[in-house]
Amino acid sequence: MKLSSLCNRKNVLILCIIVILLYIISGFYNPLVLTRYDYTSSKVPEGFDGYRIVHISDFHCKEFGDGESDLIAMIRNAEPDLILFTGDSIDDEHSLDNYRDLITGIYDVAPIYYVNGNHEYDASAPLAEMKELNEKYQVHDLNDASVVVEHNGDSILLSGLDFRLTMRGLRNNIDYANTTMFNILLYHGTDKFDGIAPYNYDLVLSGHTHGGIVCLPFIGGIISNQKELFPKYDSGVYTSGLSTMISSRGLGDASIPRFHNPREVICITLHHSS
Q1: What class does CATH assign to 32-272?
Q2: In whole angstroms, what is the distance from residue 58 CA to residue 205 CA?
Q3: Is the pTM of this model over 0.85?
């Protein structure tokens, strides 16, 4: 009996070790996924019912297939009406080649708008070249700007904020949302959401935290790419007051490897409710 009990304990221990090892090994496999969200509001105009927005964040010139073929195919297959980049498309560790491949592969799919993240301002990041490429392919700069987007005879307001804002700068640069229109705001960092929410933007799109990089069951992301432990807004949907934020896990890498944290493209479908 004692020998049988000892063998059973040994088998359980071996099984636990195997499960833990498989969990660890699988954690470093983080495929490219398309995450879909549905956003429903009475403020969404009837003409925008079913309108699809692809949200891309923290690309960091990461390669997804030859000539970005995998990423381009995912975006095109989503059939978006609008494509939005929320910063860190480039950095100082990569050339512009992968970003160029991506833009030339999707510029004809839908109108594209972007705001800058922190890495666009890295000392040796190819920001000037990115701007030149964006202008060539009509990728529109939305840093500290707004534009009216029209579709099926209705309109929404699309706004963006440059990442280089302190909270004081935020208050000086942000306007209260137009209450008569549906408003979308692009801003790279999730950390300013508590400051942005009182301005009543309906939908805020952000990234920056890379989903918390290392993700654990029942906990979520445990560290941001800025080394912040247990970031408040790591990824997913958050609501504060009248504002909803969707935070992307992003596509690129940080100094710490991703763990159980798939790279994502987000597709948001707007729905009108009466």
Answers
A1: alpha beta
A2: 12
A3: yes
